[in-house]
User: Fold this.
Amino acid sequence: MTLTAAAGTGGATVSLSSSNTAAAGVPSSVTIPQGSTSSTFTVSTGSVSTSTPATLTASYSGVNQTASVTVNPFEVPVSFSSYYNREGIVADGSKFHGGVDGNGFAYSSNLLGTTASYNGSSFTLGAANGTNVVSGSGETIALPSGAFTQLNMLATAVNGRQKNQTFIVTYTDGSTSVFTQSLSDWAATGNEAGETTVKSLAYRDRWNGTTNSTTVSVYGYTFAFSAGKTASSITLPTNADVIVLALTLGN
Assistant:
């Protein structure tokens, strides 16, 4: 903040307030030192689930000045359970059809758990023993609105490495970004460019309720948005051997 003239003896104490302290908290006051015209203060942001506005007010000597700020969420999970089309995660001992690879094998929920973390984002995985992953068929998945800079994805390939797959992000202005990403097979060592191994499991489950000692993995990928644009959807590859487990928008 800046005064029109230097603060006098003892400095100038400016009162501060916020219209939404949960989203943007400020100290009750800040003192501008004697002889100075300005000072700074810290705005403490809280956790928000959507872009949240707040008005900050500075008061001194009967004069009020305001500033508008917007606090954006650090991350928001993408809900896409309506697109689940394969039973890719099962509890040990369960009998099932198809599996994550369509050939009778699935991730063990006992080893995989219900959550994961990658690139600073948190993910909640689909519930075991039901459709809980997306096999790519060109689905266009709506993204929550907000000022995010990237999309983090948990995914894998099955039935071999899937090379140069196309993921298309559409922005609210109608423009698009095309991301070309190769994915490692879930039963291989992940080493594709732009790929991170998020979880490795010591075995996988077989359709008949037994386990198979093949090590399988879940991989992480990040798609950075064009600067200043708001993403509205992502379109998955038309490739049934590309499997998406979870999506989270982040900054």
